[in-house]
Amino acid sequence: MAERSFKAEVRHLRLGEGERFTGEGILAITKALLENGVGYVGGYQGAPISHLMDVLADAEELLSELGVRFEANANEAAAAAMLAASVHYPIRGAVTFKGSVGVNVASDALANLASSGVNGGALVIVGEDYGEGSSIMQERTHAFAMKSQFWLLDPRPNLPSIVKAVGDGFELSEASNTPVMLMVRIRSCHVTGSFPTRDNRRPNLTVREALSNPQSDFSRVVLPPMSFAHEQDKIDNRRPAAEAYIRDHKLNEVFGPREAPVGLVLQGGMYNSVIRALQRLGLADIHGDSRVPLYVLNVTYPLVPDEFLSFCEGKEQVLIIEEGQPEFIEQQLATCLYRAGSAVKLRGKDILPMAGEYTGQVMLDGIGRFLREAAPGILPAQVLAPNEERPPLPDLSKTVPIRPPGFCTGCPERPIFAAMKLVQRETGKLQISADIGCHLFAALPPFEIGGATMGYGLGPAANAAFDGGGERRPVAIIGDGGFWHNGLSSSFTNMAFNKSDGVAVIVDNYYSAATGGQDVMSSRADNPTKSTQNPISKALKGIGINWIRQVDRTYDVGRMRDVLREALTTDAPGPRVIVASSECMLNRQRREKPQRAQAIRDGRRVEAPRFGVDEDVCTGDHACIRLSGCPSLGLKRLDDPLRDDPVASIDQSCVGCGNCGEVADAAVLCPSFYRADVIHNPRKWETRLARFRARIIGWLQARRDASRLTFEAQP
Amino acid sequence: MTLHQHLPSAPADPRLDGIIKLAILAVGGQGGGVLTNWIEALARGNGYDAQATSVAGVAQRTGATVYYIEMAPQADAAPVFALAPSAGDVDIMIAAEMMEAGRSIQRGFVTPDRTVLIASTHRALAVSEKMVPGDGIASSDEVMAAAEIAARQFIAADFDRMAIDNGSVISASLFGALAGSGALPFPREAFEDAIRASGKGVEGSLRAFAAAHEAASQPPGAPEAAEAAIPAEPRPSGPSRLIAQWQALEAEARALPAPVAGMALPGLRKLAEFQDLAYGREYLDRLGDVLARDDAGHGFVLTREAAKYIANAMAYDDVIRVADLKTRSRRMTRIQAEMRAGEANLMQVTEYMHPRAEEIAGMLPAGLGQRVMDSPKWMKRLDRWFGKGRRLRSDSLRGFAMLYLLGGLKGWRRRTLRHAQEQAHLAGWLDRAMGYRATNYDLAVEVIRCRRLIKGYSDTHSRGLSKFDLVLEGIATVADRPDAADWARRLREAALQDEEGKALDGAIWTIRSFA
């Protein structure tokens, strides 16, 4: 079950000729795939293209009507490998994953695919996770296109352009027998807008039909001597064909006046920010009508030299606007100008920053500086001599705290790391490697657990140097998503084969949670089209790992701590693996909350647990927060002049997971925590018993109050 | 509710006429996406082109998140909108939390020439603020002050509370505030239609919308919403004999110099509840000793601080106190209200207790307790018998009775080992502080204030004690210096910064380097 249901959006995928789609960019891409007669789609989830996978999963009915095969691939390598269907068969295929990490994982398949070349259009949709909000290392997918010689589209970030790029991509791929990558930046994936729709098209050849008529051609196999021929083919035939297609079909666009002393060359994805900067400089209007010529590269690889040179004609200087490093495009265009003996001055990363996101401010500063230096006459007087005064603002940098993402309220992973923190109090600091996924938030305060992450599924592999053991055992953490993505083969067979002395903790929250709660092999849900409910421990046994401890309720901090301690001290040989399982609270609440509300309305008995803190008992030392960090566990200032420090307080977002109480218990913190179960629609005998109890308790309380002083604030 | 308006804004560039740029800064999970959808639907439904973007991904999970919307009246050609807010180029900034308002100012999204800033004044504390052993909460006042300068128009209220009170979530009240601000050229009904069209929790959303709309549309300079009334002074109830005795003590406390009385009265109440009036008498006597060596020239700071910390030291957290607090009727009432348990609901309360051998030994008579404490064998035995996590249903008769009996052991308390320990510690600390009185008044005050370091239970408590000892030791090494009080303050603040005492170790190192 994915985090969001797209059942409603799937209706938009059925829109036909003459209708209009309004919605998110990522959905527009999905619609465009169907309009272009795609034969099979696949991919692996991850921001920002998770929604594409979720929509496809929810649209399986429509897909099967059209004869389109959808595969939720085990990882990005599997997804890229699926494009092999387009090598021999004239079937259009598309897969999606995030860049640049997905491309890293898929690079083996992508390189082989690019070498073989394709017959049917092969499209890789990459959600480029770069800049603000990114959760990965900052690199460019661009390098992969260059090294493997496949083509890279970077369309202008509006829905009609993105939708057009899908069709262009397939055509370009078929015209040049080369896979094409469509890159969409994180904001373009989530940008909203609208475009006119066309009818969905059945594939010319479905994968089922192809299977009835198998084809092969050994000249496409990546083996010598064919692989040498492939390389020559890429340069001698496929690339010129691509350049011709790009030029003839005007995939790149030119805007603004023909005659001008300067021009801007930009990646398609930068277009809107460039226009905004020009608008602010008084050089473009609301519709993007620019007074500076623009050469917009909707295809950023390959570049088309003659097109570029003709844009440069008559200009003194051009500015290349290329986000990310190194400056691949700028280097190629510089070579191009030099070879042509051109006198045009090329500017780019000498003005604009080499690294980091090209934000609005960066664009305004960079383009402003370029124009002031290269063509001051073009700028309005107001911009040349800005005449505004800004009042000085107080410095808030010491006031405003950083707010990195963290575990959600009630997250079942928090108690695992609380237990680890407790164990480290006994053992001293341990060598801990982490993986990719929600559990990586444990690296941040208050836990500060896990020192490195080497990639998805590689957590335990990242501890391999320590497999031989030492005074204390190394610990690796990996999620269930990572386990099935690559972890079983790369991390656990590595541990088993090398007789690792280490400990691995598999955080099993029933989903690929960080990417939006997609099902994985070990998910507990029934999924009609996927095989679920395959226990992780069974897979581990299958590869010869025998020391396995299954914890079925991670909130039991005491047990978690004891199991960890056992794994770190046991004499049993070989890797020790703990499978810590509890359902992702975000997904669980999404499922159970409506059910609970319905049950209460129906008059059925429902217990709603929530935690609380006795503010008189809490001393304000915040030890509980240092072992939890739950968003619902906050602080509250009391209006008691005798108290200095704020006390712990639990707000109503608490889901009653029990972690607070368990931590207070396992770490022997304090007796301030209590759990209150509110019972809706109690049974009759229950109510009677409760009344009886309340009467006796009330009598006891009154009895004691009669013999002592109590103070009550009187209204 | 704060409203602040600058002079009219600078004229907009006519070539860009009509693009309205609106950014939302929220904490992941606050429903910024819902608000964005409403605003977008509102614009599209009223003849505008609109575009929204967000960066979702893991930033959703309790991290700071930005949503961004641009809109312009529909024309023949489509407008080109930006995908992210730029510094100095935002018309409306909605901050769904106070520090996020600060962050929006910091990032330059709020400028006096154009930005309407709508901020919720409530706080969702960041982990870094919460985990400090002392008080790490960032100052909202600083952000308020900055917002007054930075924004063209500043609308601030606790929109979170407003939403909760109306059975809704903050996106609804912020939407109401946006409507009430008049920053968008659409009528109120259009906003409400957008909520209705979304079809989820409509009633609650509309109530929260209306409340926020009213709050935000008050004219500038309107009187602030009534501040929370100052709570009335707690009044005693109980047998008249005790009340008469109390009144005598209370009169005595009231007669203390004004700065002292303000602290001594709550102190006295605390101790009367903790133990009895005789204990309150002891408190006033101790306070009298301090007062005798204090003077008006110093504003009685020493006695005022002593009134606070002696009360806290005397009302130490032992098993009896905890059990007593947990069995009081006012606690049950408070939990009922907090959990919103109505007449038709039942409520069960489970306490999480984990007694250790130390607590059991502390309950024994001082002499015996000390012998047990000194015997590892006995301590181990006690730990085996009692020392485990216990879940106690305090709404059940058995659970309640157990706590009730423990809470009734006040008569026994004065004989216990724990009491003896606390008394000894109290005396040692007071002597130490008063020892500095003659030579350095300010230092004596600072030493009194060091009592703040002792808090928590079990390990946390012992860590607090050891920090307290370290700080006092550190103070002793610099006691002869004229700036000793300043150092004492720094040491104490360092001790409250982190759990392990890294900051304190650093401060002590510094002291050693010159002392």
Give me some keywords for this one.
heterodimer; A: 715 residues; Rossmann fold; 4 domains; seven-stranded mixed sheet; five-stranded mixed sheet; 25 helices; 16% strand; globular; B: 515 residues; alpha/beta; Pyruvate-ferredoxin Oxidoreductase, domain 3; 10 strands; 55% helix
Summed up:
Chain A has 715 residues and is an alpha/beta fold. Chain A contains 25 helices and 24 strands.
General description of the model:
With 715 residues, chain A is α/β, with parallel strands linked by helices. Chain A is built from 25 helices and 24 strands. In chain A, helix 7 links the parallel strand 4 (93-99) and strand 5. Chain B has 24 helices and 10 strands. Chain B has helices spanning 32-45, 98-106, 127-130, 140-150, 159-165, 170-181, 188-198, 202-216, 240-254, 258-274, 277-292, 301-314, 319-327, 329-338, 357-363, 366-374, 376-386, 397-407, 410-413, 417-437, 441-449, 458-478, 484-495, 502-514; strands spanning 2-5, 20-27, 48-54, 64-73, 92-95, 116-120, 153-157, 234-237, 346-353, 390-393. In chain B, helix 2 links the parallel strand 5 (92-95) and strand 6. Chain B is elongated, with a radius of gyration of 29 Å. Residues 6-15 of chain B have low confidence and may be disordered. Strand 23 (673-680) of chain A pairs antiparallel with strand 9 (346-353) of chain B. Chain A: InterPro entries: HACL1-like (IPR045025), THDP-binding (IPR029061), TPP_enzyme_TPP-bd (IPR011766). Chain A: Residues 450-578 form the Thiamine pyrophosphate enzyme TPP-binding domain. Chain A: Keywords: Metal-binding, Pyruvate.
